[in-house]
Amino acid sequence: MSERLNFFCAIRTVVSFCGISKQQRYSFLTIFVYVAATCYLFCKVVSYSNSEKMIKDKIEIVDLEKKIARRILPPPDEPRWFAMSAPYRRELKAQAALDEKGIENYVPMRYEIVMKGAMKKKMLVPVIHNLIFVYCKKETIQNAKQSIPYLQYRTNREGDKNVPIIVPDKQMKDFKKVCDSYDEQIRFFLPGELNVTKGTRVRITEGKFAGVEGTFVRLAGKRGRSVVVEIPFITNVATAIIAPEFVEAMED
Questions:
Q1: Which of 24, 106, 158, 246 could share a disulfide with 20, CB 3.0–4.6 Å?
Q2: Alpha carbons 33 and 245: distance in angstroms, whole number
Q3: Where are the alpha helices (DSSP H) in the chain?
């Protein structure tokens, strides 16, 4: 503010020594202020227009605890983790089709005992049917959807439109690290099944889950506490019991 005042005072001083009348001086200053204000407003409009364009590229991550949306704005031309749906249990079919196209994807799996004829076998099966995460640019997934028409975005309602749910890289990395351990003690929960509002945000410092960030909570029927990694509106995964000395609290 002081710099602006000094600037206008300098302009007024220069004009006062130009040998023009007081009325002409005020006319000159009025025109100058008008032009300056017009330029300022023009810059604001351009800035607002650009910001509006960027808003369209913003991605939405839903905070399940507070029932509100958080936004992240990565460069629109960078790959992102899209939460997708392949209805009628076609997640593995969609995965095979995406693999053929060289598009990175992820279907969370776990071991289960399944019947194969008269035999019981321990096999990897999808944790949540229809769910698949796809990592690519939006243009790439749009093109892929033309040949995989059953592949759909998982969305969340924002105002009067549905917005694709996109998972931050770090969150997805932690989710995959827990899932890919195939630890029999890890547990999966649907949204709303687990209340983590009273938990503490922590980072695991030791063990096979070192570096994973989540909410430190006590699960029903368990004596110790686990770290829960959330994929809002999709699923939550809880680690095995973690000793308190193996976690550190995170700042909000």
A1: 24
A2: 64
A3: 2-16, 22-57, 91-100, 138-147, 169-179
Single-letter amino acid code for the residue at 246: F
Q: Is residue 233 assigned to a domain?
A: yes
Q: CA 174 to CA 250: how far, in whole Å?
A: 15
Of 32, 57, 82, which one is at a domain's C-terminal end? 57
- Provide the 3-class DSSP secondary structure of residue 155: strand
Range of the domain at 212: 169-252
In whole angstroms, give the CA distance from residue 97 to residue 118. Answer: 31
Check if the beta carbon of residue 176 is closer than 8 Å to that of residue 212. Answer: no
For residue 60, what are the contacts with CB-CB under 8 A and spacing of at least 6?
69, 70, 71, 156, 158, 163, 164, 165, 166
Tens-level pLDDT at each residue, the chain (252 residues):
555 545 555 555 544 545 556 566 556 556 655 556 555 544 443 443 343 333 333 444 445 554 445 445 456 678 999 999 999 999 999 999 999 999 999 999 999 998 888 899 999 999 999 999 999 999 999 999 999 999 999 999 888 889 999 999 999 999 999 999 999 999 999 988 988 888 999 999 999 999 999 999 999 988 899 999 999 899 999 999 999 999 999 986
Instruction: Identify the burial level of 204 via C-beta atoms within 10 angstroms of its C-beta, where 0-12 means exposed, 13-18 middle and 19 or more buried.
Output: buried
With b for 16 or more beta-carbon neighbours within 10 A and e for fewer, the 26-37 pattern comes to eeeeeeeeeeee
